[in-house]
Amino acid sequence: MIIDAHHHFWNYNQEEYEWIDESMSRIRRDFLPTDLNTELKQAAVDGVVTVQARQCLEETEWLLSLAEQHSFLYGVVGWVPLQDAKLGQILERYAAHAAFKGVRHVVQAEAPGFLDGRAFNRGIRELSRWGLSYDLLIVESQLEESIAFVDRHPDQPMVLDHAAKPRIREGKLEPWATRLRELAKREQVSCKLSGLVTEADPRNWSESQLWPYLETLLEAFGAERLMLGTDWPVCLVGCEYLDWVSLLRRLISTLSEHEQAAVLGENACRIYRLSPQGAS
Prior knowledge:
Blueprint: E1 3-7, H1 33-43, E2 47-51, H2 57-69, E3 73-78, H3 87-95, E4 100-105, H4 118-127, E5 133-136, H5 143-151, E6 158-160, H6 176-184, E7 189-193, H7 207-221, E8 226-228, H8 241-251, H9 257-271
Helix pairs in contact: 1-8, 5-6, 6-7
């Protein structure tokens, strides 16, 4: 089974998606399940994990409603107010939904020290009560802070999104590689092979440019803690859906069949507790 462990849906408007600037004009429109289903068929992908793009409960509810309507939406990583004193009640409501698998907060947009916050860490501890994973969205400069954060929660499954956004466009492998390897020593952390094209120059990148970063990820996490992820539709700024899936297949082509199956889908099923039948 092939699983895309990271993609988004949205009804586009400029106010809520101000980060989509003029250089990203191709994705300044709605992206909905019917659009994605076409891509999945071309790439022979069986199902997906849908990840939040807005920090509001309204979107979380919308994504869960989409999962009820489309059987290939196996899981949702939504947003909830992790610092809210009533978080337990909120999680009880959403955890009752079969598709609700994890939570993400856009830490990359937060000030230094955010991951040290008492209320935020209290919220992370609450996730384990409901068997939920946490998606860690950070940039390279936040890796050291993230290592300390992860160490506070040794039993909480965490998923690193977009490999902590290395500085590919500048051709800088360090200090990202060293810090990433240190983070990967924490066995509760896994990582998605996603989002790297847009960290390079989306209109002028090459496989050879990405290869040192991809090989570092494979070395650090191993086949048992890596997941295929496309970051569709954001990836369309620089790469077609099928092209990214094909590139990752080439990356892991020298691995054993068992290891390839793990990266392509089995890890996502295990880490996010997915059902092949989807949310229904």
